[in-house]
């Protein structure tokens, strides 16, 4: 006996196929996985942000701690005072021989103008430059052995004021003025001048390169610096204004004209003037063209971990 067609189709609508059930479960699983992944990512971002906040707070707390100032060893003050006296002694020695030098005793710096001793674009020293090198070499050979090793000390009491100090390095730097030349040309020029300067110093004191510091290192260091450290322009002092001159009217007749003529002739005397700078050279450029002697002092008894040489007092000025 056969069943009616409408009864068969009504019974089939109550049952879902296995494929539809698996598709629905897979869709639900994907949604659950996405929600779980978002939660895990959010937790990870929160953990990273919390770690960064803790690190910033720790760094800020370390920076807020007041730094304990390091006490300067008493020997450092002695070294500074001895170095200042050395600069003054050398400056006075050169001045007595007609060599003008600028001294910065507390900074440990002695400066000579190079534009007086070299041609504007030349490496060979002029006649005044050869004289300067001779006297400077004599001064270095007289006092440097008192504060170093490797050469006999001069006779007499020349070394007595410097017996409590030791030099670490004497840096002799030749600088060029900033100008149209390139950096390579300035380096070449100052390097050549440094060679001639060293030759002139050794002519007066042959044992300069034999000097050693307490670390057995060469004491004198000669360098051509190019135009790396140009100086600031020197301050110009304002000159007071000259008072206005009262001109009297000429007298009657020709006598007044003669008197006026006499005054004009008398006032026509040549006036003295400052020597002009070389063509194309400003005052700042002339100051930057210089020879610097920088005296580094070693402070004994100031050795620290990672700093076997101890405290070194170096000039900080340009």
How would you concisely characterize the structure shown here?
The protein is 43% helix and 12% strand.
Describe this structure in words.
The chain is α+β, with helices and mostly antiparallel strands and 318 residues long. The chain has a domain at 74-230 and 283-313: 2-Layer Sandwich (60s Ribosomal Protein L30, Chain: A), CATH 3.30.1330. Helices cover 43% and strands 12% of the residues. The protein has 7 helices and 6 strands, in the order αααββαβαβααββ. It has helices at 5-12, 18-64, 74-95, 127-143, 183-204, 253-266, 283-288; strands at 102-104, 109-113, 166-175, 220-226, 290-299, 311-313. Strands 1, 2, 3, 4, 5 and 6 form a 6-stranded mixed beta sheet that branches. β3 (166-175), α5 (183-204) and β4 form a beta-alpha-beta unit. α3 packs antiparallel against α4 and α4 (127-143) crosses α5. The radius of gyration is 42 Å and the shape is elongated.
Please, what is the CATH homologous superfamily of the domain at 74-230 and 283-313? OmpA-like domain
Order of helices and strands: HHHEEHEHEHHEE
Shape: elongated
Low-confidence stretches: 252-281
- Specify the helix fraction band: 40-55%
Mean pLDDT: 77
Terminal CA distance? 120 Å
* SS summary, helix count: 7
Per CATH, the architecture of the domain at 74-230 and 283-313 is 2-Layer Sandwich
Largest sheet: 6 strands, mixed
